[in-house]
Amino acid sequence: MDTPIADFVRIYAESGVSRFHMPGHKGRLFWGCEAQDITEVCGADTLHEAAGIIAGSEGNAAALFGSARTCYSTGGASQCVKAMLYLCLACRPAGTAPVVLAARNVHRSFVHAAALLDFEPAWLWPEEQTCSLCACPVTAKGLEAALAALPAPPAAVYVTSPDYLGGMADVSALAAVCHAHGTVLAVDNAHGAYLRFLPSSRHPLDLGADICCDSAHKTLPVLTGGAYLHIGRSAPAGFAENAKAALGLFGSTSPSYLTLSSLDLCNRALAEGYSHRLTACVKRLDKLRSALREAGWTVVPSDPLRLTLDAAAAGLTGLDLAERLRKGGVECEYADGEYLVLMATPENSPEDLGRILPALGRREGAARLRKPLVPARGARAMSVRQALFAPHELVPAERALGRVCGAPTVSCPPAIPIAVSGERIGEAALTLFRHYGVKQVDVVREQQ
C-alpha cells in the first residue's frame, strides 16, 4: 500500500530547501525529529481541506476499515467525539430531537461537546450493579425501554465500547434497536481501532454502528494524537459530506505532520501482515490470562488486547498491583482502588508479557468486602453549556454537597465524570469523590 504523506515528508526533509515557513526550528535538530516536522507547504495538502496526499492516505484508511469515509485527526479521539456529535445533531434524521441518549460512562470530551454544541444529554444508567465508574452495561432491552420513554427519538444513541476496563457492548443489537426507532448509533471506539483486524471483525462499523471514532494511537502503531473519524456506509449522507468541516470546528489549523505520517505508515502496516501479528498477540495474551487464573488472580472479561485484573478480589487495590509491576519493570495503563488495567499490542514482545506473572506472583489474600457503586444521578440545575461557561470556583469535595457542578472534576485516565456540568451534587457524588480520591471539585460560583 502506498504511503503518500510519509513519502512527501521524507523527500521534503531530504531536499535541503531553505525553510522560510513554520515551524520555527526550520528542520534543525533539537530533539531529532525536526526534519520531518513540516507545515502545509506546497504539495503537502491541508488536513481540513484535503484534496491531495492526505486525501489519498485517508482513502487508503477508508478501504482498510470498510467505511464510507475515514478522516484523520491529530487531536486524538477527543476531537473526533466533538465532530461526531456535531454531525449527529447537524445532520439528524427528520423527526428526531436535538438530544443525545448516552451511556453514562462518557469521556469528558462528550461533556465539552455538549457545552460547545449546546445540547442536553439524556442518560442511560448501568442496568446492573458495577464496582467501577468505567462500566455502564446497556442491553438492547434497556435501550428499547429508554427510547420508548422519550417524547421523540434522539438525534443519536451514544455508547462507549470497549470501555476503560475492556467491557464491550452488543453493538449489533443496539444498532438494530436504534434503526428501528429512526435514530443512529454513535460509538466511542477509542480503545478498539484494532478490532477491525481480528479474524472476525468486532469493529463497530461492521456491527452496524453509523459513526464511530477510534484512537489509532491507543492500540495501533501511531504517534500520540492520531485518530480516525469513521462514517458507516448506512449513515445519513450528510455525515460523510460534512465530516471534514466538523473536524475543522474542533481541531488546530496546524496539524502535526509527524502524527499524519504515522497514520499514513500505519495503513501499510495494517495491509501487510498486521492481522497475523494481531492474532498471535491475542493468543499470547490468552495464555497469560490462563496462567494468571491458575495463580489465583481474578481476570475480568475484556476486549482481546486488554488485561484487566480485579485486585479487590485478592484483598488488594489496583494501585498495589501497579506498584508490584513497576518493581518488575512493567508500567500499567490504569489502576484504581478496585482494578488494574494493562493494554497490549503486537508491538509488545513475548518478553514483555513474560514479566507480568513473575512481578505479580501468586494471589495470597482473601477478597475484601465491597459495595457496588451507586451512580450520582444529580438533578439538573442548569444546562451543560450554562454551567461550563459560568464563573467557577474550586471547593473541597466534602463541601460540594448541594452545589452545581461546573467543569467535570476527574483525572485522565479514565476521564469519566462523576458529576456532569449543570448537575446538583448529591450524597452519591460525594461517596464517589471519596472512593476515587477526588479532593477538590469545580462548582458554579454562587451569586453574592
**How many H/I helical runs?**
15
What is the mean pLDDT?
A: 96
- Percentage of residues in helical conformation: 25-40%
User: Approximately how much beta-strand content do the residues carry?
Assistant: 5-15%
The rough form would be described as globular
- Overall radius of gyration: 23 Å
Oligomer: single chain
Structure in a nutshell:
This protein has 448 residues and is α/β, with parallel strands linked by helices.
Protein described:
Helix content is 35%, strand content 14%. It has a 7-stranded mixed β-sheet with strand order 1-7-6-5-4-2-3, sandwiched between helices. Strands 8-9-11-10 form a 4-stranded antiparallel β-sheet. The chain has a two-stranded antiparallel ribbon with strand order 12-13. Helix 2 packs parallel to helix 9 and helix 5 runs parallel beside helix 6. The radius of gyration is 23 Å and the shape is globular. The N and C termini lie far apart (64 Å). The mean pLDDT is 96.
What are the SSEs and their pairings?
Elements: H1 4-14, H2 53-65, E1 69-73, H3 76-90, E2 97-103, H4 108-117, E3 120-124, H5 140-149, E4 154-160, H6 171-180, E5 184-188, E6 211-214, H7 216-219, E7 227-231, H8 237-250, H9 257-271, H10 274-294, E8 299-300, E9 306-310, H11 318-327, E10 334-335, E11 339-343, H12 350-354, H13 356-360, H14 384-389, E12 392-396, H15 427-435, E13 440-444
Parallel strand pairs: 2-3, 2-4, 4-5, 5-6
Antiparallel strand pairs: 1-7, 6-7, 8-9, 9-11, 10-11, 12-13
